[in-house]
Task: structure prediction
Amino acid sequence: MSSPTPQATAAQPDVLDVDEAAIRGDDEDSALLLLELLLLSSPTMACSPGILLWSAKKGIARLLWGQLFALCLPRLLFTEFFAARQQGRVVSDGAPDGELDAPGPIQSPFVAPNVNFLVDDIEAPWTFHKKFDFIYSRMMTAALADFPGFFQKAYENLTPGGWFEIADICPITSDDGTLTEDTSTHAWVTQLLEGTRKIGRPFDGAFDYKKQLEAQGFQNVQQVVFKWPQNTWPKDPKYKELGMWNLENITSGLHGLSAAVYTRVLGWSPEEMEVLLAKVRRELKDTRIHSYWPIYVVYGQKPESKKTESDEPEGSV
Result:
């Protein structure tokens, strides 16, 4: 299967306008409320609201990441691959003769027959018996100790001309200085960076992906940076929706993001950490703080093989 040619894309605005009318210290909007309404409105659902909401909360992190990326995807490049990537539809709809292998211990059973879910150690040697036209990775920030090694494995397991893409989150920031150094959020992310760097898994590692892909030998390497608002402070409806989903995503996952680094690396007690996180959650909801998370999307192509005489079909002149 040939790889698609990347198309030009429009980057997100450099500066997002603030919705002055909606400024308040505590953002009450919740993606869970919207999620429950979406589930209840589905004609295929016959469960009670309690069961639906319980199921939603069990899978909220995965769903929210997917929703956040879905809102950005129309601006991304490989639209042929991305248009229906979720649940393997890219293979069944866009390449019925192809095959998709995807990692993950918990997946929907409703997938195309040419989709396989695999569970393996990505840092161990890759033992696939085939090459891939496209390898995609997202939200691996601080998960690996050796990203150059990961990129090397991806390169070696691509077909000539195949593409690799990685999308990752970087530390929260603001363009207008409203996320000041005296905020608990600034202290939290600074300490998180310190801890992840101590163990060789820096939380800001995505800043280096582009040069690491180029060093590995990838060609046509491009980088696109998106902004995910922390809450509903932007005026633009699309970014306001992004902020709504992101608020629920980050606040509900704040403990999981922090616990190992703070208690095992930085030496905090669980009680000390929770006091800080309570302050951070309040600030993350504050629409007077115009913070956002940079999302780095970097992609590159393995060079095409040079044609040799053996590549020519029989009988060619």
